[in-house]
Amino acid sequence: MANGDKPTVDEHYIPQMYLKGFSTVKTSKKPNKETAYIWQFNVKSMQQTKVPVNVCNICFEKDLYEIRDNTGSIVAQNYIERIFGLIENNTRRVINSIIHKSQNEKCLNCSRVFSEEDKSYLIIFLTSLLYRDPQTIERGIKFLEEKHPNIDRREARNFTLMNLLPLNIDPEWDKNTIIRSAVLMFDNMFLQVGITDDDIIITSDRPLIIWPSNGKISEYKPQAVAFPLTSRLVLYLYPTDIIKPDERCCFFKMNDQYIKEIQLNTAMHAQNWIYSKNKLSDDQLKIITEARVRMEH
């Protein structure tokens, strides 16, 4: 995230503010600085790193979101990065509020704990995660190069960034970008948060889990969405059509089956890395192995 007047070069496609929810934060006395450490597991080698790593050193590429002119110079440095920073700051506030409410017994049986503004911030954040990673950006570039053989890579990359990501430059342009259109996919969905008693929820470098439409609801509306929110919380989204009014409690305690399913699906969706607050247990390793075997068949 862009920090004041100092340009950001290492631009994170999985935000540090999100990864901190799965990390252990340590504070050094001199200087008084917080550092978040997270365990990572490589799904290609099926190996866990020997020690936890600093979240600022993972899930980034240099100048990932920078637009360049025909000389190769960066134009409006960190503009997109700053937009993401605004989204992340608002989302951090919402997540902190969810954490607080999940620890309040009075909130656990409430059917309304999310304001419409809170829902909007969460949905924009989730949607941005679908398109801001290097692989998705590269697919957009390749698509344009195939469709337009005369376009050069710089132009294809600039156009991809302008169409995939929120720029807030022009309202008419913004509403036609892919990310703005994709937000509608999550419109009119009911939000629930699953709670665990221990730090056993894992996440990955592709943390958003979407079950496609089965045709019964809408061609474009997912059956369900799951998103590991912190090491103890999971956000679920369901079409309001399939959630009965008497089931619309915003919080619920996750049983063993729910916990296994979210770990299994997180491992299946991971591109390269799985992240966890604690070193993975033998049971978690078995679940991850099962998930990756499924991916091969």
Walkthrough of the structure:
With 297 residues, the protein is an alpha+beta fold. The protein has one domain (10-296). Helix content is 37%, strand content 20%. The chain has helices at residues 16-19, 79-102, 116-131, 134-147, 153-164, 171-174, 178-183, 256-269, 282-296, and strands spanning 10-12, 24-28, 33-42, 47-48, 53-54, 60-62, 67-68, 74-75, 189-195, 203-204, 209-211, 224-228, 233-239, 251-253, 273-276. Strands 2, 3, 4, 5, 10 and 15 form a 6-stranded antiparallel β-sheet that branches.
The helix/strand class is alpha+beta
Unreliable stretches, pLDDT < 50, 5 or more residues?
A: none
Largest sheet: 6 strands, antiparallel
* Helical segment count: 9
Distance between the termini: 38 Å
Percent of residues in helical segments? 25-40%
| pLDDT averaged residue by residue | 88
Number of domains: 1
Estimated radius of gyration: 20 Å
Q: How large a portion of the residues is in β-strands, by DSSP E? A: 15-25%
Pattern of helices and strands: EHEEEEEEEHHHHHHEEEEEEHEH
DSSP E strands, number: 15
Task: Estimate the global geometry from the Cα principal axes.
Answer: globular
Brief account:
This protein has 297 residues and is of the alpha+beta class. It has one domain (10-296). It has nine helices and 15 strands.
Write out key terms for the chains shown:
9 helices, 297 residues, 5-stranded mixed sheet, 20% strand, alpha+beta
